[in-house]
Specification:
The protein is α+β, with helices and mostly antiparallel strands. It contains six helices and four strands, in the order H-H-H-E-H-H-E-E-H-E. The chain has one domain (about 5-155). It has helices at about 10-20, 25-45, 50-60, 75-85, 100-115, 140-150, and strands at about 65-70, 120-125, 130-135, 155. Helix 1 (about 10-20) packs antiparallel against helix 2 (about 25-45), helix 1 packs parallel to helix 3 (about 50-60) and helix 4 runs parallel beside helix 5.
Amino acid sequence: MFVEDLEQQHIDTAESIIQRITPDASTAIDLITNFRALVQDKQQGEEGFVSVLDSVSEACDWEATYYVDWKDTDSFVDCVSTIARHWGCQLAFSERRPEQSVPDLIRIAHAELEASELGLWGWDTQGDNYSGWIGRLSDASFFKQASDVLEVRIIAIGADF
């Protein structure tokens, strides 16, 4: 689903995602405000053709979402560690080695988050990067519904990644 084609249900779904991936209500309100402004700019043609979840990611970057190049392990660790701290979690990346890839680190982060009943969620960016957020594992059915509404695959990224 792209910004130019948005219906109110798509905006509502994106805003619900932001509420669920932001542990602090005040920050969620700020991020939703960022998202609304960004969508308005993009609908007016100022920013180009992007997906709704790319807009969520852009509005929430490093506060509640990550978006990293397929080989940028340092940014992934820094960003996901920052987001985890917002959730009250400290990620150790205890198994981290220099030769590890972003997918390796994604599996490690997800495993560490599971102890707090959180998970690393992601979506198909249709590119050579990784994007997603930290969210409650109990929100799986909501993220499945959001996936259907937004017509994009959203998954909890775990050992199967």
